[in-house]
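dumping the sequnces here before i forget
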Amino acid sequence: MRNRRFMLVALAALVTAAALVAAAGQEQNAPANTAEPAQDWTPPRTPDGQPDLQGTWTNYTSTPFEVLDESDTPAFYSGDLDGTGKGTGPSSFSNDVSDRELTKMTSLVVDPSNGRVPIMPWAEERRNYKLEHVQDDWVNHTPWERCITRGVPGGLFPAGYGSGYQIMQSPGYVAIIYEMIHEARIIPLDGRPHIGSSIRLWNGDSRGHWEGNTLVVDITGYNDKGSVATNVATQRVRSIPQSEALHVVERFTRIDENTIDYEVVVDDPEVFTSPWTVAMPLHLEPDYRLFEYACHEGNHAVPNTLSAGRARDQAAQAAGPQ
Amino acid sequence: MRTPLFIAAAGLVVLAAGSPLTAHHSFAAEFDGTNPVTITGTVTKMEWTNPHAWLHVDVTGSDGNVVSWMVEGGAPNALLRRGWNRDSVAPGTAVIVRGFRARDGSNRASGGDLTLPDGTKLFIASSGAGAPPGGRDAEAKK
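..and the predicted 3d for all of it:
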């Protein structure tokens, strides 16, 4: 009865996790949704016995990605080079969260405990260069602006719109359809090894397995062209590069009928001084409908931004040497 | 000197309001937050496309010439959640759209609030392109 033993281990893990969460209750960044898992709630199962994560989920939130620091320059991270766009801040996902139950988290980053991603200086410099030169070359735009991908795990970081995720399961697989850029992740559960290191992917290579009721997804095999986060909402981490050493581990745990606890550990020893963790809830929204996201259809941002740069150059030339 | 005062006041409001976060791209790299425009004309087409909807408006000048404008809006699903539907701005609808002009000087703008003939206001902006709230006033539907 391997399954029974598995369940016992899972139960023990849950009890331990609950104890840890309770112990961490005083910490400012303890994920609110894990504070009181429904003790008597048993996750439904798919016909082949997997914990059932299926449904349409959303991640609208008002929680800032990181805890803001005085040294932060939110306007700059949003690409607002001269201040005319008035920048950005952690406060306004308001259009899309007003009808939602909000967490009391101070940041989505829960580890390190200060809520700050430990970015190496060179990576911040690279980001700064890209943001400062976004009008000069398309390569300085994030993969999202170029309609390539929002990345893994970046594609699950809240963006404020287009935030639907459809999870489907079949024997041996979990599939996650992302509304944004209509990405689809097909995650095999059969224990197959990762692809060889000679193959490099924007979103890496996902391999899943169950630990009790938790879907654990291990991702390696990234290229060094992508970014771990692309959306303005990710503030300081937006446009931070990823390296081929990036290793990501995601955990999906359905803690009640309407909630998946999503947790992801990001480890890239070439970019970050230590691993860091994001934790946040995904909310079941059966009535939410994913809107087709044919990204290039309405995306005029890259050519328009470049033409803005050329207009800037011409104006500078007309003004003559300063 | 009402205009400079108004702009100053608007600037304060902008600073106070914090601002939106969710853009597909950087607002300020493409549009000029110091260059507001009011487009009064007739809708010719609404493109319900991702990552941004685009509203096309023909504006007839005092000389009778027609100039076509493109106004960037939020993503369809964001507009839907604010109360928009496909009939909100049917072709032929007279609209007044406030927004901010493209930096390259083309007839393109990032939209803000939009006023329909009966006075109803809708908010078309990208759900936070880093854009100034630009006329997002209390009357506009959320």
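Chain A touches chain B through 56 residues (CB under 8 Å).
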